[in-house]
Amino acid sequence: MSVDPGFSAAAYSAVPQPVAALSRAPADQTGAGKAALLNDSERRLKLALEAGKIGSWQLDLVTGVLEACEQCKAHYGLDADADFTYSWLLALVHPADRGIRQRALREALLNGGEYACEYRARWADGSVHWLSARGQVVEDEAGRPLRVIGVLFDVTERKRREEELRRVNVGLEKSMRLRMRQLESEVEERARAQAAERASEARYAAVFEHTSAGIILLNITPEGRFVYEAVNPTHARLTGVPAAEYVGLTSYDLFPRELADRLVGRYRRAVETGAPVSYEEIFPYRTGMRVLQGTAVPIRDADGVITKVVISTHDLTERKRVEEAQRQGQKMEAIGQLTGGVAHDFNNLLTAVLGNLELLTQRLSGPQHIALIDAAMRAADRGAKLTQQLLAFARRQRLEPKPADLNHLVLGMRDMLVSTIGATIRIETALSPGLWPAMLDVNQTELMLLNLAINARDAMPEGGTLTIASGQLSVAPKERRSGELAPGDYVLLSVADSGMGMCEEVRERAFEPFFTTKEVGMGSGLGLSQVYGIARQLGGGVEIESQPGAGTVVRVFLPRADVALAAAEDTPAAAAEPVAPGSARILVVDDDPEVRELVVSCLASFGYAAVDAPDARRALDLIDEAPPDLLLVDFAMPEMNGAELVRRARRDRPRLKAMFMTGYAQTAPFDGEIDGITVLRKPFKLRELAAKLDAALR
């Protein structure tokens, strides 16, 4: 029992002043039997309270004394022997619950009823426990409250379960609300998805129908076969096969087995890796051989299983053709550079051979010697003609292009072509009226036409038709007609035959020098290479279209002439005073010692005074020492070419006469200076040298 000095009964208006007699039970006068019975009852009650962990308490409202059992103290976290007062009890009640407990007790005292309250107690270790207090107010005969007697339960576990249940209920309620919102959202999302799917299908259909790329959809059967399900119009137009014909087929139904094996292998790799597979392949379609670049992309269903393969294709045929033309042009350019260099050196050799043979004829008079020399000269002449053909291919001969009527040129050669080609070949012409004037070298263009006609004749050993046509066309800047044909206007010369045609390998090599399919001795292999070189040097190009058994068409593109520009005439240079041939002093400049020695010997035989120099620098020194009447200069020399030498020599001597010797001449940078200067082509005859010298000096 503890007396709480801080307890104030005045806090309760219904509590009377202390009455000692009322706070204790009356003495028992019934005897020992009744006492024993009472003790037994109290013992049983105590056992029951302990078993149920129920704490009992009593608050004396008169004295303020609080009596509490050990279990009751334990519910507040106190030891059994702890001093426990009413003030201490109030201090242990959770601050947030003190008002609730006080109101419940006040209501019980005022109404004389039962006291019931649940509140939290905060133990000394900081933990919080829920307690349930139940009590009854005891009153005196006058109805005044004397004390409150009650029990105390620890309901922490129940509160915990209730809280868990509340949380569960709250969670369930939230889950239900969330699920309802999710269901509503799913309905809305499904509606949006259906609308998006319809829009996506519309977009897919638009892309499928109108894209510039070919699209193929393959279905994968349970057996692993790739079956055509659909193709778009672009692919159908490209291949010439209607889209409906593809459905249900496989690659093995459409292509040779070797090609089909490669395609199916790529489709399988895309399925196995789950990644796109790109490839490039040549396909035989109804529209012809097409080079396609394809990308196979695996498509998964809603369960993530790959069930289809979609293939996008792009036609690379035209680009490959242009790339091949460019590659062929680069190859021909490299061959031309090599050929031109060889022909130039060969011309120098032939010049020495022919010149010395002619000098021999002046010293030998026996018929046997003359016959041998003539045979050697004929062989040298054939070599000279061969080098001219090589130089034409290498585009290292000097042309004289001017505006000309191609139709007129073709008609003028008809009689010669008839006599050359023979009676078994029928010659037809298809000349376009109103043809643009072409910028061409008449002699070389006639040679081109003759070479093409002879080639066509040889392709028709049993006879046929040779068709010569003309036309005109414009090549736009972005047009990929030919890898070598620059944008602009062109006049077209076409020569077609109905002969045996060419395979692809032969067609690709047709312009190469010395390449021929004819028997040994039947052709030099320089006809088409000469055509190619002349056309390119004029600023045009050549195309060949041919298939085995279907004949050949060779198209030569010649640049359109600007007549107004071509009609303009250069201002004539001031004429130099003539020099008498017998008294002329000539400076010979050539880096080839054999040619130089020959020319000096020839000049001496003509009666000229000759001085020679091995290069341009030595020649300039000799000019400074004693200016000659004429410079006889090789055009192509190391360090400084002949045109540059003449230009430097004329700085101080503008009236100095000059004449070029050349096996070939890349003259474009010096055309203004070369015009008006006599040019002697190697190899030359002595009479040609004499005539050119006489013209240059006069």
What are the key terms here?
alpha+beta; Beta-Lactamase; elongated; 698 residues; 22 helices
Describe this structure in words.
There is one protein chain. With 698 residues, the protein is of the alpha+beta class. It has five domains: 9-154, Beta-Lactamase, CATH 3.30.450.20; 211-315, PAS domain (Beta-Lactamase, 2-Layer Sandwich), CATH 3.30.450; 326-394; 402-563, Histidine kinase-like ATPase, C-terminal domain (Heat Shock Protein 90); 581-697, Response regulator (Rossmann fold, 3-Layer(aba) Sandwich). It contains 22 helices and 22 strands. The strands form five sheets. It has a five-stranded antiparallel β-sheet with strand order 2-1-5-4-3. Strands 7-6-10-9-8 form a five-stranded antiparallel β-sheet, sandwiched between helices. Strands 12-14-15-17-16 form a five-stranded mixed β-sheet. Helix 10 (317-363) runs antiparallel to helix 11 (367-394) and helix 19 runs parallel beside helix 20 (642-652). It is elongated, with a radius of gyration of 60 Å.
